[in-house]
Design brief:
Stationary-phase Survival Protein Sure Homolog, Chain: A; 27% helix; two-stranded antiparallel sheet; globular; 26% strand; binds manganese (II) ion; 13 strands; nine-stranded mixed β-sheet; alpha/beta
């Protein structure tokens, strides 16, 4: 029987995790392991050389879950090292409250939990909803419906190594369809709120965006679910030839640059 691990970054009691767990249960046996508190924007954080607390909890519908006092990537990392039954056939992370598009993906705990999974050789799908305030279960249910379709297909087809699928669903309970997309470019408009001895990063939410057709941003803003394959090899392959032409060698002069 298909075995699925579900995690998230909004914390083990977030509504998106419950909606995703319920949808995944239609596809197989599910284990839930998730952060004890909201770990949004924790990035690909790995906790080393210190204790990581964990406990058994129950989701609102009674589903048992492991709550971990670490990052989303920690949840998958310690899961893979033996805290839970491993390996699953797939890891599914989400449903995040808020989109994870363009450069968001390196901040996102939802996405980095999926990246941690493929480091451990298990395919993964990250799922996010383009709504930062939603407690509307219908929105999560519609997102989870599409997540189940994508997950079922991924189980049939298999992903290449170190590759995840990043699924973002629009702020709609009637999704128009699924678009295969590339990462767009998001313009952050963060500002610094500076006090005498603390600073705080604030900004309009969701901030500025460019949403060229074919990008993840464009799809969710036009009522479509966005599906982007993401590879952990971040090498800028298209720049390699130009970089070679810089002719950097250990005995290159520094041309007086200072
Ligand atoms: Mn989050």
């Amino acid at each position: 029987m298909t075995y699925i691990v579900v995690t998230n970054d909004d914390g083990v009691f977030a509504p998106g995790l419950l909606a995703l767990t319920m949808a995944m249960r239609e596809l197989g046996r599910v284990s839930v392991i998730a952060p004890s508190i909201n770990q949004s924007a924790s990035g690909h954080k790995k906790t080393l050389h210190q204790d990581i607390p964990y406990s058994q909890v129950a989701l609102a519908d009674g589903t048992p879950a492991i709550s971990v006092g670490g990052s989303p990537a920690d949840c998958i990392g310690v899961g893979a090292l033996g805290l839970i039954e491993w390996p699953p056939d797939i890891v599914v992370s989400g449903i995040n409250r808020g989109p994870n598009v363009s450069q968001d993906i390196t901040y996102s705990g939802t996405v980095t939990a999926a990246l941690e999974s493929v480091i451990h050789g298990v395919p993964a799908v990250a799922v996010s909803l383009d709504n930062r305030v939603a407690n509307d279960i219908e929105l999560y249910r519609e997102s989870a419906r599409v997540a189940a379709i994508v997950t079922a297909r991924t189980l049939q087809k298999q992903l290449p190594p170190l590759t995840i699928l990043n699924l973002n669903t629009p702020n709609s309970d009637q999704i128009k369809g699924i678009r295969l997309t590339r990462q767009g470019v998001r313009i952050y408009q963060d500002e610094l709120d500076m006090k005498e001895d603390v600073v705080r990063v604030v900004g309009p939410d969701p901030g500025g965006m460019t949403d060229e057709e074919g990008t993840d941003l464009w799809a969710v803003h036009n009522g479509y679910a966005s599906l982007t394959p993401i590879h952990l090899d971040m090498t800028a392959h298209r720049f390699m030839a130009d970089l070679a032409a810089w002719d950097i060698t250990t005995d290159s002069p520094n041309n007086g640059a200072s």
